[in-house]
Write a structure and sequence with these properties.
Layout lengths: L16 E6 L2 E8 L2 E6 L13 E10 L2 E12 L6 E3 L16 E2 L6 H6 L21
Antiparallel strand pairs: 1-2, 2-3, 3-7, 4-5, 5-6
The chain binds FE2/S2 (inorganic) cluster (FES).
Amino acid sequence: MARHIVARTSDIPPGGNKVFGVDGRDIVVFHVNGEFFALLNRCPHEGAPLEKAACVARLTSPEPGIYQRSRVGELLRCPWHGWEFDMRNGQSFFDPKRVKVRSYPVAVESGEELQKGPYVAETFPVHVEDSYVIIET
Ligand code: FES
């Protein structure tokens, strides 16, 4: 699996998203509750751009008249026909076994970690065995 460095974390504001072209695909990255999620920017129904989707909460009702919100902002509601998807894995809510949006693993790493890379040149110890007096004129 190829790794692609697409943005600084500050390029995607909390609650926002940004689309990146990666290997010929448009991938949208969402920044929600301090986490980043990446999905193909195409609804599996008729292809709406999911960058325009509403980020909503999960709403459950344990009994009539009682509503509970959870996972605020982690669910996507497609802008065209309202199908809903889980941002964490792309699964739909109405047919989780058959309909899903392709999702991609996302990692956040410091610039220092990225710069290190796997290749390190061999180094050797250095000793200074004498001193010199230097005059500047
Ligand atoms: S295109 Fe997304 S629900 Fe229809």
